[in-house]
Amino acid sequence: MVRRTEDDDDDYVSSAVSKGDGGTRLNAVQLDIFHAVVATGSVTAASRRLNLSQPAVSRRLADLERSLGFALFLREGKRLIITPEGTAFHDELTVSYVGLERLAKVARDIRELRRGHLRVAAIPAMCFGPVPQAIARFMQEHPQTKITFEVHASARILDGLAAGLFDVGVTQMPAAFSSLTVEYTYYAPCLCVMPVGHPLSAKSAVTLQDLASYPLISLPHDTEVGHALMRRFEAFGQVTPRAEALTSMAACALVAAGAGVTLCDPFTASSFGEGRLITRPFQPAIDFSFRVLRPERRVASRPVQALVDTINAHLGADSRVHR
Asked: Where does the record place the HTH lysR-type domain (predicted)?
């Protein structure tokens, strides 16, 4: 099929057949001009679209034909007639343009954080307050980035980060575990948690001596808070835990049921609400420490860095947290 285009530019002369060398590297500007001429129907319209002069468009179109070694157009009066070879070449060029447009879209999506799947893991205590709030904010700002939010014990998160299974982890980390990138380290003072109406609620702060008079629900000795509390108890010599709960959530649930009192992070304690539990500062203070981590030796993608920055912003704005 021969396509005809009206044109009032006399500068273009097809000369590829007689002068073609076929060895020159194709020029992207020449290809854009050829595509524009076919799309708009004339050199004049193509020059307006590309903001080039008509002679420049004609000259580069002729240069392209010499590079290809065959004619793209034939002139018939003031009309340009695209040749069968030109049609075949333009059809293939259109496929390339579709591919380039897709690449451009991919680039835009990457630039605007529209692509990707982020895997975030946190210990149970960090599933309340600033961390889920930060993830929710990130999801609102980047709706096309998928998020998987998992809850695991510290050891599972550390192993998963080291193996590259998670992109971001919010967890506690022993000093001996060093094969991860630490983005931020935070501390939050533990609170004494008690049922509503408990006698200790009359105190402005709770001490080890105060705990000696009531059933205590402790966290495991291999947790940071549980270990610190046990060391204090051993030195004090008068407190024996009545029960042990594997997580701070389980400990607070027992407290809410009237089983005793516990010491835990402020995030879990506040998740029950003032109507079920009451908290008081504990002295001498025991810090609940945690870190925002990434796999080591892996450059953070833009979405990962954006999520880390959002988590940091929310944690930094929380009055219970310090660095």
From this structure: 30-83
How far is it, in rounded angstroms, from Cα 246 to Cα 261? Answer: 15
Say yes or no: 32 and 90 in one domain. Answer: yes
Q: How far apart are the first and last CA of the chain?
A: 73
Print the domain residue range for 33. Answer: 3-111
Token code pair at residue 154 = 């510290």
For residues 90, 91, 93, 97, the Cα torsion angle rounded to the nearest 10 degrees is 120
User: For residue 59, what are the contacts with CB-CB under 8 A and spacing of at least 6?
Assistant: 11
d(CA 14, CA 110): 42
Task: Tell whether 159 and 178 lie within a shared domain.
Answer: yes
Which residue among 111, 145, 161 closes a domain? 111
Q: What is the pLDDT along the chain (323 residues), one digit of tens a residue?
A: 334 444 444 455 555 444 444 455 677 888 888 888 888 878 888 888 888 888 888 898 888 888 888 888 887 776 778 888 888 888 887 777 666 666 565 566 556 555 578 999 999 999 999 999 999 999 999 888 889 999 988 888 998 898 888 999 999 887 666 778 899 999 999 999 999 999 999 999 999 888 888 998 988 877 888 788 878 877 766 667 788 888 899 999 999 999 999 999 999 988 887 678 999 999 988 899 999 999 887 677 888 889 999 999 999 999 999 98
Of 206, 185, 176, which is closest to residue 194 (Cα–Cα)?
Answer: 206
Quick one: 59 and 138 in the same domain?
Answer: no
Question: Alpha-carbon distance 153 to 224, whole Å?
Answer: 12
Q: Residue 322 domain-assigned?
A: no
**In this structure, are 204 and 279 located in the same domain?**
yes
Domain identity same for 97 and 136: no
Domain count, the chain: 3
- The interaxial angle of helices 54-68 and 28-40, nearest 10 deg, is 110
Alpha-carbon Rg for the chain, nearest whole angstrom, is 35
Report the CATH number at residue 178: 3.40.190.10
Residue 205 forms part of a structural domain: yes
Determine if the pTM surpasses 0.70.
Answer: no
